Amino acid sequence: MTVDNIDLNTYLPIFIEETKENIQQISSNLLRLEQDENDVEAINEIFRAAHTLKGMSATMGYSDISQLAHQAENLLDEVRNNKTHITSTMITGFFHIVDEFEAQLNSLVETGEPSKISQERYQEILAFFSPSQVVAPLEIMEKISETSREEATEGECFLLEIFFSRDCQLPQARAMIICNQLASVGKLLETSPSQKHLAERDQLDKLTCRVSDIRPEQVRALLEGGVEVDYYTIEKYNCDQEIAPQVTEEEGGFRQPQDSTDNSDSHHDPLVLRHTIRVDTEKLDQLLNLVSELVINKTSLLQAATNFPLLADGVEHLHRLTSELQVIVMKMRMIPLETVFNRFPRMVRDTAMAVDKLVNFEIRGAETELDRTIIDDISDPLVHLLRNAIDHGIEAVDRRVSIGKPRTGTIRLEAYQTGNQVVIEVSDDGHGLDIEQIRAKSREMGLPGVDADAGELANLIFTPGFSTVESITDLSGRGVGLDVVKNSIEALGGSTDVYSRPNEGTTFKISLPLTLAIIQGLLVKCSEEIYVIPLSYIAETGIIFPEDIQTIGQQEIVMLRGKVLPIVCLNKLLEIEGPGPTEELSLVVVRYGERQIGIIVDDLLGQQDIVIKNVNWGEQFFRSFLGCSILGDGSVVMILDINVLLSVVRAREVNHA
Amino acid sequence: MLKQFVVFPLEDELYGVDIHQVMRIEKMLPLTRVPNAPSFVIGVCNLRGSVIPVIDLKQRLTLPSNIDENAKIIFVHVGKQVVGMTIDSSVDVTSIDSDEIEPSPSLVTGIDSQFIQGVAKISNRLLIVLDMERVLTLDQLNVLADLD
User: Fold this and answer.
1) Could you say which residues from 29 to 58 on chain B have a Cβ atom under 8 Å away from some Cβ of chain A?
2) Is B2-147 in CATH node 2.60.40.10?
3) What pTM did the predictor assign?
4) Residue A255 has pLDDT above 50, yes or no
């Protein structure tokens, strides 16, 4: 098997951008240090930046830069450990290092290669520091090449699992380098993810390789010399075996292959740098508010313009511009989920070790983007679900072996976008939920739906105080249950669901709105009042007649295509005064998780962009609603919270039961 | 030290709110009812692009309530919270030396003493200075969120 040449150029723009930031960081903190030589914070900042720079340049294979950064890092470490004190000569020396970084970077931008740092220049820089502070040059690269190819043991196969540390910069590139190095020392048989897919990954925490004709010491030398490998395992392996099925990748469905990466043979493309700036989120919020106002005004103009054909073109254009602006502002607020996901591999590993289980953790779709206000709040619920999966989902190793499952359990965290929603799934291949135990427990707690099907029963585990686990462990089972997860997801306008199959595993599914600020909504009218139903919940709309409505217990229902659909009448529910609907009723079918309910209203007024506004006083009076919005004519409307309507239906079912 | 108060009559008494807490005073605005909220929350209105809850101040102070077409809405802010309160028509601004405000709520008035910051005499009438934080604090309220 030949090893594909890595095209590190893919990462070059990122490297350049980040290095610029790090250099900037170092020089501004050097200036601070010049003012106050005891500024510990500044020293730490420089240290961090130098460390990052070292790691990234080593990954990219720019040994001169990384060596210089290594030197700087060591010098600072001396200072941090109070072994030496900052002098003005040292600061000047550091500035020379910064100058050299800059020179290297410029050369990199212009020629695609950093220039070589001459020995004289190196000595010139080091002259600013006392000889005792200077350390021996870094030997990562040399060490690896020395150990190559000698005394390979033939025929022996090893399974190598390499875990990258969380602060590893560009783990994909690191992984590619490791693959290349492994291939140069021994025979690289197979990797997972495959090398072809490595470049397409945004995130990587683990690389699995099958290698042969190599000695473990060689692997050790190769991995331990390098930076940012958290830990690795190596075990002897039967060559004929495939890498265990749970780690073979079936990539492709979630990411479009990028056409641009295919023509990698055109080597010296001029670098297209993406310029980024950092913006205060408050400014983004202000911008969003202004755009929201614009959207409201646009809507009122659209309405007004229907009477003035002359205005139609202009208003249509305004409509398009506003929509584009809205999309851009929304995108500006979106950040990829990987910012949250990145911290999980380590957590899962530690948790699994704590409970003595073997877990293979997979992350997919970390590039999926969500509004930052939502991202900030989903971390805790996900931690909860992952811990649950490890603690309750995955069986102990001997139990797994005894029922013929692979020793290592798999937990998968997967995110993807469907329409206006982002779905995050946490699934395990453990023993699944014990539906009978849930049924017994819900009977004990007097919950409704004891006779419900398995799907409905499974969702009862979100009920406060519901726990079928007898033992309390350090990790979960202390009463802070799944209801907390459900509540925090619902507070974000999302919904939770659980699917389970005995002995095959459990999947928790979280659906979240893409954004909390502007949604699509259907305006409905009840008597003289107007309400908004979020479009993302609507399954269908239709017309029914009063005689279609039947009553079971306290619950009104209609038959829709042979299925029972519980309905709520908005007029009654919201105590709306007025004559109420007469011969024709409008029915809006909404779905929430697996459930569907029908909402009866007088009339449907059509759909439009709804800017969600929240009140900042008396929130408890608005709990039945998702928020308020302002329509084009300036009037305020309330946005219905489907979950609240559903709880009304549930309450009626309890009374009936 | 002189302090300025926005002064308005409710029933037979004069009430005052520290002028620094008053954002705007508007004529009655179109309100949208908030279903299932307690009756003193009479709705929400659109104040220059923000959705602001409006309460019936007389009801909140346990005075008999009657909102007529002359009613005005006085928008006050406490911290970051903004609330509109309906008041009867006329509004005035008065300066009072803070020394003249008696902290004693022992004087008997028609409203719950917890809402009173102090009282002062202006031109032979009694001015009740409202403690806005107390008026807008909701912890002791029973929240009626029962949809059924």
Assistant:
1) 30-38, 41, 44-46, 49-53
2) no
3) 0.53
4) no
